[in-house]
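Hello, quick one for you while I still have it in my head. No rush at all, and the record is pasted right below.
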Amino acid sequence: MKISLKLEYACRVLAYMGRLYDGGSQLAHIEILAQAEDVPRNYLVQILNSLRNGGLLNSRRGKQGGYTLARPPTEITLYEIVAIIDPDMLEIRASRKGESSVAVNEVWASFSASVNETLQKTTLASLIPRYATALYDI
């Protein structure tokens, strides 16, 4: 299974933000996120806007502005992230033509259900490395 680069970037940046999460008071700045996770800044802006519009991030404008998770990392599922960033990944697009299509579609439907179940059970917290130490601004 191949995930899009956009989804990979979103997961990496959200994992970084999950390490910062302290109830929403510590803001992550675009420049720091882009550098820490090696994501092109202009592309990151688009991703963050999608996540904000999808309800996973809060933002504050201005010089002291930035982004924070809208909820704790333990309450944000990978399913939500995929649904916002790459919803086509959640769809099955097998043909209904041919004599074997029913059996083929059943297998793909089962696979899709399994993937969706895993995505719904897996939270952003699982993407945060266990060895991660707190990040501090110096």
In short: The chain has one domain: 5-127.
